[in-house]
Design brief:
heterodimer; A: Rossmann fold; 2 domains; nine-stranded mixed β-sheet; 17 helices; rod-shaped; B: alpha+beta; Glutaredoxin; four-stranded mixed β-sheet; 4 helices
């Protein structure tokens, strides 16, 4: 869709004026639309969307740019066209009733025609001219004018008349689309590109490895620059949309806002407490390591904050995902019902990578999510080679970043090759901002889950390998437990903890018994002291006794010295 | 082939262009020669009646439309190839039969 400011760029007389095509994305490739007032040739094989392309050009011309249009069908009758287009959301009957659209079905039935001499196609000119004038049409589609070659045998007259027709259309100043069936050696069977030489768009419907992709290429655009790549395009209930992949640039704004991972303890492992808004996160791991669960936590977190989440499940159906997540206490259904969460399930092989990208792009435009989850991205490898996958991922991540959408990818890795699947990992590792790895920690007859952060751009993060458990109430990250031989998990952790507590108990017992022994010793000591004291006291007592006896004896015997004095 | 009905024609022309004039002359001559008094011919200038073009699904000019008898038939061109015109209109056979008899 063209913006107003861009429109002005083309309004200077020196530059070719363009008419917005109304086909999402095409105007970006053509830098403004189809050449105004000139015919454009759209060629392609059967079933590649030529008619729809033309019809969308007219319908959007009416509804969005107020330019009435004439559709001259050489193949499908008007009723069929009406039916076909209503299924794609175009109510052409209504537009016809409003005199904005005129459909003229030209049927050339070979069996009822006899050519009896010279003639011209003035009838066609007048019909078309009348249709254009009656509604003041600015746009014209001729679909597929080559059918005339099947009905009329005199090709030299036809060719001359077609040449005249295209000149006449130019002279009329209408922007025209002429569709043509793809020829074997030329763009169209009858070489219409010779006559319509201003702009030629080639549509293609290719099947590679059983996966079909519609592609579009601008072969020629006289007087204008244009994208030269092959662009995938999508036909869905809203018509045709083209995804101009090369128009993505790495100049998006970055956010400093942090969003939670949905798990408190995991948040704590990041120094800023979560992921950056608009960053891309990869959760890689081997089978059954709860990648989807971690992704669901993030989805829940986004929804709780009131942001929309787009969940692409390449392995599970929405109902299966909802059921499985409810078993650990994540109620995704509530968010689906509220319209905050959209789960899209499809097999990756349903269509090509480009188509996946295109679908994503459309959904992002329509749904405007805050977070996008792709589970798992590694499944896409099955439908493309390495180069395709990496270019797909680059564009996908750019697309999400430009829209400031936090993207969470999960990736299944192989257990044996260094725990990394080379294809996805290599191509994605430089693109993602945060990389969390979940893996099995195997030993002593059991497997346990370990989680660690490989990188987190723009913030510090824990270097620990944390064991986590999935319980009925959700994920629980356990504290790190280091034993004599490294990190301990599962029952080894339990065993270790048990041994430790036994040791503690034993030590306590030892201390207690020592205490008791000392107490005993003290008691013995006390007893000894007491005994000795008693002994001492008895000795002292004996001595005293002797002293007293001696004194009494002395009293009985008079002193000789005393009598001499008298 | 003969249903005994009257031949009804519409001839679509563009004004007085050379081929148109030639076509008018040719059809008149053929009709007078093979089916005199058994035909109705309406000449329509498509410039003046553009809506009839859609009605009869006309793209080329001149075009002669045979409405009856039998199936609808369109003759493109100036009708200068008399054999083709006659076989296309289902007249030739009848004329030959007449000659043989």
């Amino acid at each position: 869709m063209i913006k107003k400011s861009e429109k002005h760029r083309f309004s200077s007389p020196t530059v070719l004026e363009k008419s917005p095509s109304g086909i999402a994305g095409l105007d970006e490739i053509t830098e403004g639309g189809l050449p105004k007032g000139r015919p454009t040739l759209i060629c392609g094989g059967a079933g590649c969307g030529k008619t729809l392309f033309g019809m969308q050009f007219l319908v959007k011309g009416i509804t969005e740019y107020n330019e009435p249009g004439v559709f001259m069908s050489f193949e499908e009758p008007t009723e069929d066209l009406e039916k076909n287009m209503i299924s794609l959301g175009f109510d052409i009957k209504k537009l016809a009733a409003q005199k904005k659209l005129k459909i003229d079905h030209v049927m050339v039935e070979r069996s009822e025609i006899e050519e009896t001499g010279e003639y011209d196609l003035e009838g066609l000119f007048i019909r078309l001219g009348h249709a254009i004038d009656s509604i003041g049409a600015k746009r014209v589609v001729l679909d597929t004018i080559e059918s005339l070659f099947a009905g009329l045998t005199n090709t030299s007259i036809l060719r001359a008349e077609l040449r005249r027709l295209f000149h006449w259309l130019k002279h009329k100043g209408v922007t025209a689309i002429i569709t043509g069936e793809r020829g074997e050696s030329s763009f169209t069977r009858q070489g219409l590109e010779e006559y319509v030489s201003d702009c030629v768009i080639l549509l293609d419907f290719r099947v590679i490895d059983q996966i079909s992709t519609r592609r579009l290429r601008i072969v020629k655009y006289r007087g204008s620059t244009h994208g030269t790549n092959e662009y995938p395009f999508l036909i869905d209930e809203q018509g045709v949309s083209v995804f101009p992949i090369t128009s993505l640039r790495l100049d998006h704004e970055v956010s400093d806002k942090i969003v939670s991972t949905g798990i408190k303890k995991l948040d704590d492992m990041f120094s800023r407490g979560g992921y950056f808004q608009g960053s891309s996160i990869l959760i890689s791991g081997t089978a059954g390591t709860a990648k989807t669960t971690l992704a669901s936590y993030f989805a829940q977190e986004t929804c709780q904050r009131g942001g929309k989440t787009l969940f692409f499940a390449f392995e599970e159906s929405p109902n299966q995902l909802i059921r499985n997540m409810s078993s650990i206490g994540i109620d995704l259904k509530a968010y689906v019902d509220k319209g905050l969460l959209q789960i899209h399930s499809s097999r990756p092989t349903l269509y090509g990578l480009e188509m996946h990208l295109l679908t994503l792009n459309k959904l992002i435009k329509d749904f405007k999510p805050k977070s996008v989850i792709i589970d798992p991205i590694s499944n896409l490898v099955s439908i493309g080679n390495e180069r395709e996958v990496s270019s797909f991922l680059v564009r996908l991540i750019d697309l999400l970043k430009v829209n400031n959408i936090t993207a969470l990818f999960t990736s299944l890795t192989q257990q044996n090759i260094n725990a990394f699947n080379e294809q996805t990992e290599e191509s994605i590792s430089s693109l993602v901002d945060t990389w969390i790895t979940v893996r099995d920690v195997e030993g002593i007859g059991e497997r346990n889950r370990g989680l660690f952060i490989l990188k987190a751009r723009g913030m510090g993060h824990s270097n620990q390998v944390r064991e986590f458990l999935i319980k009925d109430e959700g994920i629980d990250l356990l504290e790190l437990e280091i034993g004599p031989e490294g990190m301990l998990t599962g029952s080894a952790r339990g065993e270790f903890q048990k041994t430790q507590s036994v040791q503690k108990l034993r030590k306590q017992k030892q201390v207690e018994s020592k205490d008791r022994e000392i107490e005993r010793k003290r008691k013995i000591l006390d007893a000894n002291i007491h005994a000795m004291q008693t002994e001492f006291e008895s000795v002292v007592e004996e001595l005293n006794k002797l002293e007293i006896e001696e004194q009494e004896l002395k009293k009985k015997i008079p002193s000789p010295l005393k009598s001499k004095k008298r | 082939m003969r249903t005994g009905g009257i031949y009804r024609f519409k001839l679509f022309v563009t004004g007085m262009s050379i081929t148109s004039v030639r076509a008018i002359e040719n059809i008149k001559r053929i009709c007078e020669k093979y089916i005199p008094n058994n035909y109705e011919l309406e000449i329509i200038d498509i410039h003046k009646n553009p809506t009839t073009l859609t009605e009869y699904d006309i793209i080329a000019c001149p075009t002669l439309v045979k409405l009856s008898p039998g199936d609808l038939k369109k003759m493109l061109g100036d009708l200068s190839n008399e054999d083709k015109v006659l076989s296309g209109l289902g007249i030739l056979k009848e004329g030959r039969e007449r000659n043989i008899n």
